[in-house]
Amino acid sequence: MTDTAGLADLDFTSVTPQEFARIVKGLSTKELKEVVQDAGLRRRILREVFARMESQFRPENAGQTSAVIRWKVGADGETVFETAIDKGACTVTEGRTEETPKVTLVLGDAEFLNLVSGNANPITLFFSRRLKVVGDLTLAARLTHYFDIPKA
């Protein structure tokens, strides 16, 4: 399924991470940008992606890591989520908390969707300036090891 119109009717809670990765891979950057122009659909997609982070978390790889990761997603980083990793547990909060993040990741909608679906390389995004990292670069580099990233 790569029909952008069909995405609006899709129940994202019933889509596996691998299916989501295939859907994202089948869409061009232009099509991804069209999808997120629908504010309601964009919000549903982002909430579902972040809701899955807790179940995709690999505590054995994170070890004793304790950190807050702030995600700023969108053209101006207008949507904020935070992922808190604390000694084998992962929790996600929509919006900005009072916690000071160890790292903040800033990226556009299409880049974010490609990244979390395993369809983009974070190093390539960083060096092409489509992913901005503020704070602990080592932690940012380790994030892909802390989560089970689906493959399309």
From TrEMBL:
GO CC annotations on file = cytosol
- Pfam families noted in UniProt: SCP2 (PF02036)
Which domain of life does this protein belong to?
Bacteria
Q: The SCP2 domain covers which part of the protein?
A: 58-147
Query: SUPFAM superfamilies, alphabetically?
Result: SCP-like (SSF55718)
**Protein name per UniProt:** SCP-2 sterol transfer family protein
> What organism is this sequence from?
Streptacidiphilus jiangxiensis
